[in-house]
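Exercise 7. Given the encoded structure of a 171-residue chain, write a plausible sequence.
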């Protein structure tokens, strides 16, 4: 799958089939890795899913943070069966669930996708049809903005917001 390089060239994210899982047809599961050019090391970020579910990793310009999507359980402590958005602090080797319900108790109830990250790595924007990420989201697909400092989401689309209104394409 398509590799992605950070703006400063330090990090390269790529998906591959783990060595322990030789090619087994289209049911093969991929994992997301990050290569650190400074340390000259590869690190497993997370399992990300099947061929039909790419991770779409994105780096912040400051190169210390990454956002990505995964449909695999085990990326964080929250179980999931649909695509979720995650935040990676590369120096800490830790993942945080972005598409977390507003109670902080479970992953989003439906698919989330298309992460984008702010230059400083503080904010992650994404699309989701999950209910319960915030208290004021409308049904359907909404655009959300997650803050890594507060760990909370706000909806930036839909009626009553200053966002883009109804998003007319699928996840």
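Solution.
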């Amino acid at each position: 799958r398509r590799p992605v390089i950070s703006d400063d060239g330090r990090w390269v994210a790529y998906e591959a089939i783990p060595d322990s899982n030789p090619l087994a047809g289209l049911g093969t599961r991929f994992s997301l890795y990050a290569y650190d050019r400074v340390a000259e090391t590869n690190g497993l970020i997370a399992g990300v899913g099947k061929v039909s579910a790419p991770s779409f990793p994105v780096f912040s310009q400051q190169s210390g943070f990454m956002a990505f999507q995964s449909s695999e359980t085990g990326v964080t402590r929250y179980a999931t069966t649909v695509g979720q958005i995650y935040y990676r602090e590369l120096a800490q080797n830790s993942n945080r669930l972005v598409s977390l319900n507003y109670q902080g108790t479970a992953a989003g109830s439906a698919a989330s996708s298309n992460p984008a990250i702010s230059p400083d790595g503080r904010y992650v924007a994404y699309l989701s049809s999950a209910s319960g990420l915030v208290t004021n989201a409308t049904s359907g697909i909404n655009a959300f903005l997650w803050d890594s400092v507060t760990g909370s989401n706000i909806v930036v689309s839909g009626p009553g917001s200053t966002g883009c209104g109804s998003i007319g394409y699928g996840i």
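Remark. DSSP finds no helices and twelve strands in the chain. Students should compare their own answers with the one above.
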